């Protein structure tokens, strides 16, 4: 249930097209739906602007499928993060309509919202090809949450001319998500070039002293370029969610 659907429901009650008992039946599971193993938050789209997202990691295919079905039954998009290919195949046994995005390890059921006219662009930038799983998690999530998205990949500081060749794309974006592992330098470079929000995503890519992304995380947190927001290691989804909320201000 989102604002548009709730508005339509109340309008139908006001006009007499829908009686109160029928409306109450539709609202019965609005706050949440108790499945025993999970309480599906149908109210989240109303509060946040996008529905609850399913973390696939640690859940069985049956649990993922049942939660997804309940979301779609309420007219919401079901987005599943951290969904590996084997789990996706198992979910497809009961939900053959599942769309799977292997590069970002994401699954989806239902139709995403259409980006509203005049909404800003989210640009997803990756330092290297090894960062693509996290970058694609961010890019696909942002698209499924109803944003216009473009990608600019493999433009890390080891060859900075690759980034500078596309500086026009940086200035055309409303929000930038910058994904980098190793020493995590790229978000700081981008942050010094643009006058708009930059969301930095450290990845666990790198050799031993990168400490599975900790070095990149600390470097991004200590950036001298102002205006950079940093999310957790490998958290492409979190970056996309934050970018979506920021992008709403650009309508």
What report would you give on this structure?
The chain is α/β, with parallel strands linked by helices and 251 residues long. The chain has two domains: 3-109, no CATH class; 121-250, Rossmann fold (3-Layer(aba) Sandwich). The two termini are 22 Å apart. The strands form three sheets. Strands 8-7-9-10-11 form a five-stranded parallel beta sheet. The protein is globular. α10 links the parallel β10 (198-202) and β11. The model has no long low-confidence stretch (mean pLDDT 87). α4 crosses α5 (85-94) and α6 runs parallel beside α11 (236-247). The protein has eleven helices and eleven strands.
CATH class identity of the largest domain: Alpha Beta
What's the number of extended β-strand segments? Answer: 11
Question: What is the count of structural domains?
Answer: 2
The proportion of residues in beta strands is 15-25%
Radius of gyration: 20 Å
Number of helices: 11
Reported CATH architecture of the largest domain: 3-Layer(aba) Sandwich
What is the mean pLDDT? 87
- Poorly predicted runs of 5 or more residues: none
CATH topology of the largest domain: Rossmann fold
Brief write-up:
The chain has 251 residues and is α/β, with parallel strands linked by helices.
Topology:
Layout: H1 3-15, H2 20-27, E1 33-34, E2 39-40, H3 44-48, E3 54-55, H4 61-73, E4 78-81, H5 85-94, E5 99-101, E6 106-109, E7 121-126, H6 132-144, E8 148-152, H7 161-164, H8 167-172, E9 175-180, H9 186-191, E10 198-202, H10 214-221, E11 228-230, H11 236-247
Parallel strand pairs: 3-4, 7-8, 7-9, 9-10, 10-11
Antiparallel strand pairs: 1-2, 4-6, 5-6
Helix pairs in contact: 4-5, 6-11
């Amino acid at each position: 249930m989102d604002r548009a659907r709730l508005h339509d429901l109340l309008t139908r009650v006001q006009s007499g097209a829908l009686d109160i008992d029928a409306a109450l039946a539709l609202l019965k599971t609005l706050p949440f739906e108790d499945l025993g193993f999970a309480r599906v938050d149908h109210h989240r789209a109303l509060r946040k602007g996008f529905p609850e997202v399913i973390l696939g990691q640690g859940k069985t295919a049956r649990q993922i499928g049942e939660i997804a079905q309940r979301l779609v039954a309420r007219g919401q998009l079901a987005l599943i993060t951290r969904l590996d290919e084997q789990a996706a195949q198992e979910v497809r046994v009961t939900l053959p309509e599942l769309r799977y995005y292997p590069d970002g390890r994401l699954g989806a059921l239902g139709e995403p919202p259409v980006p509203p006219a005049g909404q800003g662009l989210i640009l997803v930038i990756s330092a290297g090809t090894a960062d693509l799983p996290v970058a694609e998690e961010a890019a696909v999530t942002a698209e499924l949450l109803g944003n216009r998205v473009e990608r600019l990949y493999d433009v890390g500081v080891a060859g900075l001319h690759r980034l500078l060749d596309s500086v026009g794309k940086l200035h055309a974006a409303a929000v930038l998500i910058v994904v980098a592992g190793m020493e995590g330098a790229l978000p700081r470079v981008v942050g010094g070039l643009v006058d708009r929000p930059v969301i930095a995503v450290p990845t666990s890519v790198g050799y031993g002293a990168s400490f599975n992304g900790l070095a990149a995380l600390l470097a991004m947190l200590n950036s001298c370029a102002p205006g950079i927001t940093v999310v957790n290691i490998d958290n492409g989804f979190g970056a996309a969610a934050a970018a979506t909320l920021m992008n709403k201000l650009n309508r």
